[in-house]
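2024-03-11 09:14:02 INFO worker-7 job=invfold-0412 stage=load source=structure_tokens
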């Protein structure tokens, strides 16, 4: 059985339209320095009883919490993600900022070869915490930690796309655009 390990290739893409008639994303942009990611979908289940026993389990989807950590989140990406304004080279965060809806892509290595690829399709970032510490003889890097809330697309109800190298799928074009339906990913030669 293959095992997953490693993480790289964080990408984000702004979601500019999500309606019953279609979905539109901007071109994905790489975020270098992937450290870790945790995807935690919340579900609620209720057991329905009939004929003197459990008859059916009804499940509903709630929030999809995502925590990601990167080596750094450059100021231009912060401005894009959070809607910060820049004046004379100084970036300002304000109560009027409007974070964008975005898709998050990444990949993990598979022990048998290749990678597993992911796109989380619609989410918003919470404010970025700032945390630094003094150098105490050794220089310890501080990373950027982001929390995001994801939800299903209005267009088709999907919240995640994933694929794995299997001899026919190599992933070469996975990060060229957000994969929200199978027809978006062109067949590989």
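2024-03-11 09:14:09 INFO worker-7 stage=emit residues=189
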């Amino acid at each position: 059985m293959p095992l997953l390990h490693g993480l790289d290739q964080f990408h984000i893409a702004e979601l500019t339209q999500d309606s019953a008639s279609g979905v539109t994303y901007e071109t994905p942009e790489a975020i270098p320095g992937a450290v870790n990611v945790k995807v935690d979908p919340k579900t609620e289940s209720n057991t329905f009883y009939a004929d003197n026993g459990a008859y059916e389990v009804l499940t509903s989807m709630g929030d999809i919490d995502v925590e990601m950590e990167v080596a750094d989140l450059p100021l231009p990406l912060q401005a894009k993600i959070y809607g910060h304004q820049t004046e004379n080279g100084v970036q300002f965060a304000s109560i009027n900022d409007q974070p964008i809806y975005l898709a998050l892509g990444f990949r993990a290595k598979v022990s048998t070869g290749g990678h597993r690829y992911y796109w989380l399709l619609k989410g918003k970032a919470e404010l970025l915490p700032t945390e630094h510490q003094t150098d105490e003889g050794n220089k310890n890097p501080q990373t950027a930690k982001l929390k995001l809330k994801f939800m299903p697309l209005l267009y088709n109800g999907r919240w995640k796309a994933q694929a794995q190298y299997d001899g026919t799928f190599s992933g070469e074009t996975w990060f060229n655009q957000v994969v929200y339906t199978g027809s978006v990913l062109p067949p590989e030669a």
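2024-03-11 09:14:09 INFO worker-7 stage=report msg="The chain has a mean pLDDT of 89."
2024-03-11 09:14:10 INFO worker-7 job finished
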